[in-house]
Structures are given as C-alpha cells and as structure tokens.
Amino acid sequence: MTEEQPIRFRSTRDLPSAHLLGTGTPTCAGCGGLEALHQMVDVLGNKTVFVNAAGCMTLLAVYPFTPFRGGWLYTAMASAPAGAQGVRDALDIVKRKGKLSEDEDMEVVVITGDGAAYGMGLSATSGAIDRNLNFIYLCYDNEGYGNTGQQYSAATPHLALTSTSKGSHGYPGFKKDLFSIWTANNPAYVATIIGAEPLDLAKKVEKLRSIKGPRMLLSLSPCPTGWDFDPKHTAEIGRLAVSTGIWPLKEYVNGQVVHTKIPRQRKPVEEYLKLQGRFKHLFQPKMDEASIADIQSRVDAYWAAVEK
Amino acid sequence: MSRQLLTGNGAAAWGARLAQADYIPAFPITPQTEIIEQLGLWIERDEFDALMVTLESEHSMLTAAGAAASSGVRVFTATSSQGLLYAMEMLYTVAGWRVPLVMVNVSRGLSAPITLEPDHNDILAARDTGFMQIHCASCQEVLDSTLMAYRLTEHPDVRLPAIVNLDGFYLSFTREPVDLPSAEQAAAFVGDFDPENLQFHASAPLSQATAVLGGGPYSYFRYETHLANEQALVAYEEIAEDFTARFGRRHDMLEAYRLEDAEYAFVMMGSFASKARDAVDSLRDAGWKIGLLRPRLLRPLPKVQIQTLLKGRRAVAVIDQNISMGMGGILHSEFAGTLHGLPDAPPILASFIGGLGGRDIRQQEFFRMAETLKQASDTGKNPEPRLLYTEEELAEMRKFQSIAGLERDELTQGKTS
To answer: B111: how many CB neighbours lie within 10 A of its CB?
Structure first.
C-alpha cells in the first residue's frame, strides 16, 4: 500500500531543513530521545497531538512553555495509549458531527519512555493494539528509568550498571523484546529507529504517515546522564549501536519484518560498550573478556538468524 | 414524560442517554455492568447515538474519558468499588484538567475481604479528588441527578467532573417507578455541550495538562480547582430551581426529613437513609421530635446549609456506612468540622458505624441510637463512637470461626472429612 507513493527522502539532502519543535527545552545536553523526536516532528508536521506518559519528555511542556506547535496532553505513567484513544475517538466524533473539518484533524501520537512502554504502560498499549487504535506510538528507549536517575527497567541491557544495579556485575537481566511483543499482535506498523540514522528515521516516519492503525517507533536513545558518557558522543554511540549490530534497524509492515540497514561488516560490540561508563566494569580494572564475548555472541546469534 | 419500572442501573443508563452523551469509555465491574450493557444495546440498535469503547482497565477508562472531554465531547462513564480505586490516579488527574464529565459509581465495599455488597468507602476514597459528588437514595434520584450533574459539570463557573453515586444491590438492582422525561424535555434542560477552550484543532495549537515547576503555580491551580468546586454550590441552586420548574421534582443539596421542630436528628447518606426515614416515622409516632438530614451533595459540602439545618438541635447521630481505620466515621468528621465553634451547634454529635458491606441496619438499632442521643443529651456527655453489630451476628460469626478452625485443624492433621 505504501510502495506507489513518491519517495520523499532519497538522501540526507532531502531531509527537512525547517525544524518544527521549539528550542530551549529542559532535556539534558546530548539527549538521544530529543534528537529522534526532533527529526520525527519535522517529518510528521504540526498537525499532531502528543499524548505523553510520565517520563523525561514530560518536562518538555512546563507551564507556561511548550515546544509543540500542535497539541499536547500529559496523562500519567500507565495510560498514555488510553489518552490517545480518548483524543482519537473524540476527534472522530466531532468530525462525524461536522464540527471538525478533515483539514483540522490531527494525528495522535503517544510519546513514552521505556519505563512506561516496557512495563507499567504495557497493558494500556496492548489494549490500544487490540482495539486497532489509529495512532502513532513513539518510545524513546534510554534503557532505564532515566528521569528518576537511571534505575534499571525491563529495557535495560544485560550487565549495564544502573543506579539500582551498581554492583560489580551490573544488571543481571536481559532487555525485553518490545518489538516482538508488538508484532505478535499484528499492528499496522512497527519500526526501530535511532537519531544517529536520520535518513532511515525519516523514511520510516514518512512511511507510517500513509498507514492507519497502531504504529510504533522504537527509538534507541543514547542518554549521556544515564549511560555515563560525554554528551558530544551521542551521535557516535548511536552510529555504533547500529554498526555493531546491537540495535538492528528494522520495520514490520504487512506481516513481514524487514531489516532496513544490515551492517555487513559488523564492528565488535566492544567499540560500543567502551564509550559508556555503564559498561566500564567490563574493561576495568581488567577486561572481562567472558562477558564481552557473551554480549558479542548474542548479537552474532541475532544476525545469524537474520542472514540465514 | 413516561413512567417505567427501572433499576438504579437502568436509571443511570437513561441519564446518560437523555443527556445525549457522545462518548462512553467503559469497563465492566459488578454491580455496575447493567449500565454499560444497557447503553451498548441501545447503541447497537441505533436508539442512542454514542460511541462506547471498552478499555482494558478503569485506569485507562478514566484516562480516555478525560482525554475525550479535553478534546471537546460530552462523556459518560461508570464504575464501582475496586474499579474506582484502580482509576484513582486518573480521578485526581482529570479533575485537575478541569474537564466536565459525569461518572456513575455504584458503591460496593472494598477489599479485603473482597465482597460485592455496598458501603461508602469506595466513593469516600474519591472525596478529595476534585470530582463533585451527588449521592442518591432512589432510582428517580439517580436519573434526575445524572441530568443535573451534566448541567453542574458543564457550568461555566465550575467545569469539573462529577460522580453520581448509588448503592450497589439496594439501588442498582432494585426496580422502582421512575418518571422519564422525553428526549426533547431532557435535551432542553441539559443543553448542548459547550467545550469552551477544550479542543484539539490543527489551526488552534494547545498544550493541555502541562507540568509545573514549583509550589507557586501548583498551588494556584489547586486552589482554583477547590474554588471552582465551591462555586458549584451557587450553580447547584440555579440548576435545582430550573429542574423543579421543568419537571416538578425538587432535589436539594440536603434532604431535610421532618427536621422542622426536631430536637434530635440522624445524618445518613445514600439508600440506607430510607431506613432512617422509616425509623423517624416510627419514632415520631411514639412522640419523639426527631428528623433526618441526608446530604446529597458531598462535594462541594454545603456547610452553611448543614449549619443552618442542625443549629439548635439537642443531639445529632451521624451514621456512617464507611470506616476510616484508626479514626472512625468519615461523615462524622466532616460534620464535626462543619459544626465546630458555632455558638448554637448541637452539643452532642454521636458517631455510629453500620451498613458495611451491605450489613442491614434494623429499626431497633435506630431506636437504640435515638435512646443513646437522648441519654447523652440529658447527661451532656458525648457518647463513645459505636460499631453497630448485634449479638446474633456475633453468634453467627463465632460459628463460622469454629468451622474455619475445624477445617484448618483437619487440613494440618492431613485428615479428609
């Protein structure tokens, strides 16, 4: 259904030069979540209502300021998709009653962190997919409860140090596969994105604009404060997440998962890990080669299955 | 206008239909289910032009309700008990959004132990949320209060959500004759929904429900919500007048039953107050000067009206169908606060707790309470708070305990009976 439309973004030169999201937000320097949100808004445009779950991005709209030129509704941590349901249904009702023209309609976009998306908000998210709600769901995934000081969440990767896994071994669990939880329920569109790959991101946002139904963008969001790295490295860490194969860029549409950028010559995961303080225990006081090899083998196994 | 035999739940559903609610986010819970089943049926049969969506929880239901109201449509929803508590975060939240919407709560005791029959701990947990509260004692009142609640919630000086409360089983499943206004009469009373500034339109960007930093702006918005809630007292008077003029029925903030010359008074909310009404009649027959005060409006609390109606009485018994653990009756505290320091306040304000989890309050118990008031008034000493329980109930309970003990002993000894 999307193949016939003209391709808007062939190269980075085609990316929007006008930036729609206002400046001066209180997010941290180098926020990978804001980086992705910026790019997404530029492609989506201003006819959007962002329905927010409690998290870092809640601080984007602090009275009396807002960076959004469309709509914004902060809800609570658990129920942003239900807020999107209410807004979407109400807009459809006023449209049907002739009180709102098609031109005045808005796209409803949930904006949530991984804390809500992978945990507390999963019930409301699942419900919205069941009901085939026509909405976009953006998860900025910084792999922990970032706004409260980076305690581990269900999105935290294996062995990462967080403020609730400070010991010498890091977080013992494994990152939950939210992408597959979504695709298992056959939604209209699911994609992984990252701010460091703006062309891939723009193409995906452009594609989902023409689709109706539940549509998810899962953005790995390098987090200088939570992952413990210099803010100037946000883009580099983002690129390494892709080139090491740790963050596969892919999309699910029409029942098929397609990888949109396959790193044929994958860099060793070590290059991604060593830039981040949350993995420093794997390198100091001495190299924990077994753990690094373990992480590498999991990445290799993923791509072996893809390339098979 | 027509007359039908309706349950309390049926009356609530008619309230939503006659108010022409646009949107009904729903989630089923006993004893509320009949309301959403009825609404769903009407919608399927094209008898009611509304959209009903079943959410996956009451928390989501309330979120969707508030979000839809903030997008410019008239919203109805309904819940009960555990559901109300599950939604509690969003009750506070959507009241803070200053959105008009009406929710019916069918009161039911709270877990633990889990039960189905009514008391008021569920609805009183919502006391401080910002939602207004109207408490009903008859099926007619459920219908009328739902229509009045829409006027109240959408009043330009108020713009706050409202709860209409009815007791599970005693009202929800009891059929009473109810006068139904015609669709035209109801529409003329309720009026069209005016969203005012609540909307999301592409050409009119708006950020709603933003965060604040610091206590200054936070306090400002919280005070505003409180003051708007108090403004509802003024709005209520005008709405009740208009309702009476159109339909001939009067629903005051407080029902004053045989209070004119009363020396003693019972205070009770909800359908159990009709038991107190009966007791008042019997006691009056026996020569007592006693009456009943039944608050319909609990939020905002009509303090001045309560003071006026109770001043000069010798003794008042507040009968709470709820219990605040470690404190006692919630309504009793509210009345003590309302009456405190008034020169002509009743010298005796006794507290009784009864009717928890649907436990009956018998006529003899009302008579005993009246006796207690009289003795307290004679001695000038406020009685200790009482937890109503009869010897028969205790005997029954002791029997249960011995059976439970027997079962436990048998199981721990590995025997089977």
So the answer is: 10
Locus of tokens 């098929």 = A256
Which of A66, A91, A124 is opposite residue B210, by nearest beta carbon? A66
CA dist list (Å): B417 to A10, B407, B408, B411, B412: 79, 9, 12, 9, 13
Extract the tokens encoding B92: 């506070």
User: Where along chain B do the CATH 3.40.50.970 domains lie?
Assistant: 2-247
The bridge status of strand A189-194 relative to strand A249-253 is antiparallel
Distance between CA B9 and CA B390 in Å, rounded?
A: 31
Residue of B nearest to A57 (CA): B211
Q: Give the pLDDT confidence of B165-217 residue by residue, as tens digits.
A: 999 999 999 999 999 999 999 999 999 999 999 999 999 999 999 999 999 99
pTM: 0.97
| Burial call A272-287: b when 16+ CB within 10 Å, e when fewer | bbebbebbebbeeeee
- Looking at residue B413, its pLDDT comes to 86
The whole-number pLDDT of residue A61 equals 96
CA distance A108 to chain B (A): 10
Interchain pair A86, B64: CB under 8 A: yes
Class of domain B2-247: alpha beta
Nearest to B131 by CA among B93, B157, B169, B86: B93
A258 touches chain B (CB under 8 A): no
Low-confidence ranges of chain B (pLDDT < 50): 417
Minimal C-alpha gap between A308 and chain B (Å): 39
CATH C-level class of B254-392: alpha beta
- Beta carbons within 8 Å of A104's beta carbon, 6+ residues apart: B201, B202, B203
Range A12-307 classified under CATH 3.90.226.10 = no
Determine contact, residues B356/B325, Cβ cutoff 8 Å.
no
* From A49, A82, A93, residue closest to B200, measured CB to CB: A49
Cα-Cα-Cα-Cα dihedral sign, residues A126, A129, A135, A140 = positive
Tokens of B190: 């309720």
The predicted model gives A97-106 an average pLDDT of: 96
Residue A6, pLDDT > 90, answer: no
Contact B140, B64 (CB under 8 A): no
What's residue B1's pLDDT?
81
- Encoded tokens for B356: 């928890």
Res A7: pLDDT = 81
**B210 vs A contacts (CB less than 8 Å):** 61-63, 66, 72, 74
The residue extents of the domains of chain A are 12-307
A71 touches chain B (CB under 8 A): yes
Binned at pLDDT 50, 70 and 90, residue A4 comes out as low
Q: DSSP letter at A6?
A: P
- Say how far apart CA B228 and CA B225 lie, in whole Å: 5
